Amino acid sequence: MPCPALPDGFDFTDPDVYHHRVPLPEFAQLRRTEPVWWNAQPHGIAGFGDDGYWVVTRHEDVREVSTRPEVFSASLNTSIIRFNAAMTRDKIDIQKLIMLNMDPPEHTRVRQIVQRGFTPRAIRALEGALRDRARTIVAAARGKESGDFVTDIACELPLQAIAELIGVPQDDRSRIFDWSNKMIAYDDPELAITEEVGSTAAAELISYAMNLAAARKECPAQDIVSRLVAAEDEGNLASDEFGFFVLLLAVAGNETTRNAITHGMHAFLTHPDQWELYKRERPGTAAEEIVRWATPVVSFQRTATQDTTLGGARIGKGQRVGLFYASANHDPEVFEDPGTFDITRDPNPHLGFGGGGPHFCLGKSLAVLEIDLIFQAIADTVPDIALAGTPRRLRSAWLNGVKELRVRYA
Ligand code: HEM
User: May I ask the CATH architecture of the domain 15-408?
Assistant: First the structure.
């Protein structure tokens, strides 16, 4: 039964609807009146061949779905709710090779292997190099009077972090960046990137990573690639598995963190009291509030493996269920004054990194470290940074992206 006050066919994942307004007032209405709402799409959504999906808006319900993988599968229809019109079922099915789109027990096996590269010790080992990088990036921006914050500052550190983690040689790093941008931007007409360019970029990145894996197998180094691929047995990744893992990292680790940093800067510049507070006290809680505020991943989906109920709604076997992290992160049942950007918020049980459960963000500690390091460097080096334009947003069905944010550094 459609929520009466929303227009027929209203679609939270349609970039035309979503990308102008975050958070949508419609979420607040749904949380109050129909927290799990059937979003009918009579004309279907490319690739899925069904007639709609459930919109899950409350914090509690997003957590419930995320932590019950036996009832809510990440694999049946993968994690992205909406693709563009050219998407086919075959192409969706290929994406099941990515860990984000696997269910236990396959997911458990891959996750156990790759998390060796993300131990607190492994992340701590990157800290010194990333701190230096953060300072260098911001110092280079200071040399200009003004510029685009996204290209000057937000892009570089997440890319370097992943490249450092998997041991990509310096000369190859810009290629990884370029491929990952192309894979994500197909929904945005301004970037004029077709689905085909996106698929080619994905194939090139996978093949690059597979070659890297093969080289490390032959000649091991002190990086995680060598540890993950050392020998192909139950406890290691095959070269193609490694290729798909790097593909996931390039999108999951790059674009998300870049947008958290950009939204964070915009939030600071539009809330000057919070910027002054940050510069003075550098609270350790700031990075988490930036992720809650930004919610770089607006939504992911699951598919019901059986008939079930959720938040008062009866979900049928095979129906898709959209987890709207952006809505959960503004749920007044959980957050006091959710519309306030408060860098001292504590506790801050936001779902920006997922709702718990087996797919909870593998790179959370790395992301929090990167956000912390870059804002420390900005506060030290360009403390008087100021806004010089409105953000230009990426047109995407699941990523809360900013393409350009003009600032003055001096
Ligand atoms: C602010 C930055 C980031 C945000 C907002 C973010 C958000 C997310 C979200 C929402 C999920 C899905 C959770 C779920 O389905 O329950 C996820 C999964 C994942 N993230 Fe992140 N992420 C960030 C940074 C990173 C970084 C830096 C890396 C690695 C370098 C990373 C690697 C991954 C991986 C590998 C997964 C899949 C985990 C699995 O399926 O088991 N993420 N992330």
Answer: Orthogonal Bundle (1.10)
